[in-house]
Automatic annotation (TrEMBL):
Keywords: Signal. Residues 40-337 form the Phytase-like domain. This is Esterase-like activity of phytase family protein. The lineage of its organism: Bacteria, Pseudomonadati, Pseudomonadota, Gammaproteobacteria, Alteromonadales. It holds the Pfam family Phytase-like. Residues 1-17 form the signal peptide.
């Protein structure tokens, strides 16, 4: 079942004005030494559910690819996660483009895929949005605000991290992980920042509208060393209906015993947000960002996980309906192929619930 059709069928559920809740159900750890079609399974930066199967992108610039997988859910538990195929994102023999794969979704036709790359800003390789079709790969045209320069444009490793097919099925929403240079300072432990979420339609493959999103400050880990590496960002988005999204924010601090990851899920409403697509800079501008409500701080469910650990979560998707009729939500973590130390490729399963309306 295609994602936008799935959301259409679930529209009455997500239209409920009662606050949404996410209830943790289960965790599955992908073996660290797993390979499929000769490729190592890891770097899982996004997850997409489509017609009973799952697509997961690998954050690997040397071998850009994505995996097909089957995830068996029974009695609100993950019985098995089976990776079945490894598929290339670019033709390494003919494509000279430098990519850093981050998010992938299936197009409404159920055949084409759309995926994002952060590029490599410090080496002047541009970010990109691609659509891979049976006829070949095409690129979306980015507006000037995403051009790389010293004073403006995206920061390194903080560009197109999130992607969702629009509820209308006519385009996509793409989110930047961090603030553009011209929009202000990056988030730190003292203040947050404004990032942009942009809509591109399939017909023109150009940006048509955009809104600003407030990224929370970094989670302060006072036990960290003064020179600890810290980062935070908007790492995934998922459109639920015409004006609401789920967003995933991840904050990381190095040198922390529990891994240093803090992840939160928000319900975002852009109905009253200002269209910022014509604003070259957000500094000293009057605009209204999207509203947001915290749904889940993953720290509150950490002790329910078998691993007792929240890793580098970066992807989420609505999965199949559960036996009780409620939607499922799955999340996946990017283990960075364990180049920074031991990390987990974990798949988390949640139930999406809304309280019954009062009588």
């Amino acid at each position: 079942m295609r994602s936008c059709l799935f959301l259409t069928l679930l529209a009455p559920f997500f239209a409920n004005s009662a606050p949404m809740q996410l209830e943790f159900l289960d965790e599955f750890i992908v073996p660290a030494d797993l390979r499929v079609d000769g490729d190592k399974v890891g770097g899982l930066s996004s997850i997409e559910y489509n017609d009973g199967r799952y697509l997961l992108i690998a954050d690997d610039s040397k071998n850009p690819r994505y995996f097909e997988a089957n995830i068996a859910i029974k009695n609100q538990k993950i019985e098995q996660v089976e990776f079945t195929k490894s598929l290339p994102l670019i033709n390494q023999k003919t494509d000279s483009v430098v990519v850093d794969p981050e998010s992938l979704r299936m197009a409404p036709n159920g055949k084409d895929i759309i995926w994002t790359s952060e590029g490599s800003i410090k080496y002047h390789h541009a970010p990109a949005i691609f659509m891979q079709t049976e006829q070949g790969q095409v690129s979306f045209t980015l507006p000037e605000m995403f051009n790389i320069s010293k004073a403006s444009g995206p920061r390194h490793n903080a560009v197109f991290e999130g992607l969702t097919v629009a509820h209308s099925g006519q385009g996509i929403w793409v989110s930047a992980e961090g603030a553009l240079k011209q929009d202000g300072e990056e988030s730190n432990i003292e203040h947050g920042s404004m990032v942009r979420i942009s809509y591109f339609d399939f017909a023109s493959k150009r940006m048509q509208k955009q809104f600003a999103y407030y990224l929370e400050p970094m989670v302060n880990r006072p036990q960290a060393k003064p020179d600890a590496f810290r980062t935070t960002g908007l790492v995934e988005i998922l459109q639920l209906n015409e004006h609401q999204f789920l967003t995933m924010e991840r904050s990381y601090t190095s040198g922390i015993a529990d891994g240093g990851n803090d992840v939160s899920i928000y319900l975002v409403d852009m109905k009253e947000a200002t269209d910022t697509s014509k604003m070259a800079s957000l500094k000293q501008q009057h605009f209204r960002p999207a509203s947001k409500t915290l749904l889940l701080n993953l720290a509150t469910v950490k002790e329910q996980l078998g691993s007792k650990h929240i890793d580098n979560l970066e992807g989420m998707t609505l999965g199949p309906k559960l036996a009780n009729g409620n939607p499922s939500l799955l999340m996946v973590s990017d283990d960075n192929f364990n180049v920074h130390g031991k990390q987990l490729s974990q798949v988390l399963l949640f139930e999406v619930k809304t309280p019954a309306p009062a009588h």
